[in-house]
Amino acid sequence: MELSDLPIRDDLQGKSPYGAPMIDVPVTLNVNENTHSVPAEVRASILEALSGALENINRYPDREFVALRLALADYVNDGAKGHSAPVTPESVWAANGSNEVLQHVLQAFGGPGRSVLGFPPTYSMHPIIAEATGTQWVTAARDADFEISPATAVAAVKEHQPDVVFLCSPNNPTGTGVSLETIEATYDASDAMVLVDEAYIEFAPDDHPSALRLLEGRPRLMISRTMSKAFAFAGARLGYLIADPAVNDALRLVRLPYHLSALTQAAATAALAHHSTMLATVEQIREQRDRLVTELTKMGYTVWPSLANFVLFGGVVDPHATFRGLLERGVLVRDVGIEHTLRVSAGTPEETSAFLEALSDVDALARLEK
Ligand SMILES: *Cc1c(COP(=O)(O)O)cnc(C)c1O
């Protein structure tokens, strides 16, 4: 029995699922996680909260996740300069990872006969979620160095007339930011819903503003974020969205009832109470990212400046061979399918050193073979 023997939907025939390799190696730098574990004191609080939630686990959870929305609003209000804004709990939505948030958005605003516009190279899940919700994924080219100018964005919106636009800032896998001018121009160019995926915003410099600055008076603007990256909570699955409360009412039409388990709500709320501790590693990760940029440049690679916790580097003669060479040395990076490039996440200082050493080793071998 093969997948192709099954009567799956016509529009899913021949598609591939998300497939970042899951390989157990000493140095895992392939999916942009925070590689620091959650501090013991926060783990203790989470355990206590989980234990409290278990007392009522015979009941369905709070469908409106009120405590969690309050905690998320507090966190967003308190965040780094440039990334914060006064948001109310009513403007916060959440789901099992921001991937599920994006799925809710496309279930409500996309779907059959509708389209979502993206600017590749961008997050590989955007087209997959589009396909899964029956939304047509349409694309437009970026400017040089993966930038998107206001004029480029406006021209793309006018050409494709999409129902939804996805802008990713900082963008995965390039690390590039999208300016507020571009977001504003995109919004003004049509009546489309505009989503800014800010999964990596905590790693951006404090003077790189969040799209939150634009939220007031723009009911079609949505900002998605996640606890999976800076917040070191990828395993818990919690993503969220900030938008006009009416947008959240639209998402209520498509989410499954009680979609956030009592355990997820309790764990995330407890972790958010410690948000400054949870974010303590962000500065260190930014330093390692900047170190990667400096060292890779010195080694002769082309490196794109990154506002996130990873770096895309080019000039790799054979990315597949380099990927294998690094893997043989216990280091897992990501081949994102852009010619002659690889992407590496900034890890702890030790992990970053291990990657840089393995890479120069692989390089040396490659030169010997020539
Ligand atoms: C990692 C990532 C996410 C996070 O997804 P979760 O489902 O919240 O873990 C979202 N958007 C982008 C661009 C990402 O790289």
From TrEMBL:
- Which reaction does this enzyme catalyse, per its entry? L-histidinol phosphate + 2-oxoglutarate = 3-(imidazol-4-yl)-2-oxopropyl phosphate + L-glutamate
GO MF entries: histidinol-phosphate transaminase activity; pyridoxal phosphate binding
This protein's record includes keyword Amino-acid biosynthesis: yes
**EC supergroup of this enzyme:** transferase
Q: Which UniProt keywords apply?
A: Amino-acid biosynthesis, Aminotransferase, Histidine biosynthesis, Pyridoxal phosphate, Transferase
Give all residue intervals belonging to the Aminotransferase class I/classII large domain.
Answer: 27-359
Q: Which InterPro entries match?
A: Aminotrans_II_pyridoxalP_BS (IPR001917), Aminotransferase_I/II_large (IPR004839), HisP_aminotrans (IPR005861), PyrdxlP-dep_Trfase (IPR015424), PyrdxlP-dep_Trfase_major (IPR015421), PyrdxlP-dep_Trfase_small (IPR015422)
Q: Which first-to-last residue range defines the signal peptide?
A: none
Query: Which Pfam families does the entry mention?
Result: Aminotran_1_2
- Which biological process annotations from GO are given for this protein? L-histidine biosynthetic process
Q: Which domain of life is it from?
A: Bacteria
**Do you know which NCBIfam families this protein is assigned to?**
hisC, PRK03317.1
The protein's assembly and partners: Homodimer.
The record's comment on protein family reads:
Belongs to the class-II pyridoxal-phosphate-dependent aminotransferase family. Histidinol-phosphate aminotransferase subfamily.
Protein name (Swiss-Prot/TrEMBL):
Histidinol-phosphate aminotransferase
From which lineage does this chain's organism come? Bacteria, Bacillati, Actinomycetota, Actinomycetes, Micrococcales
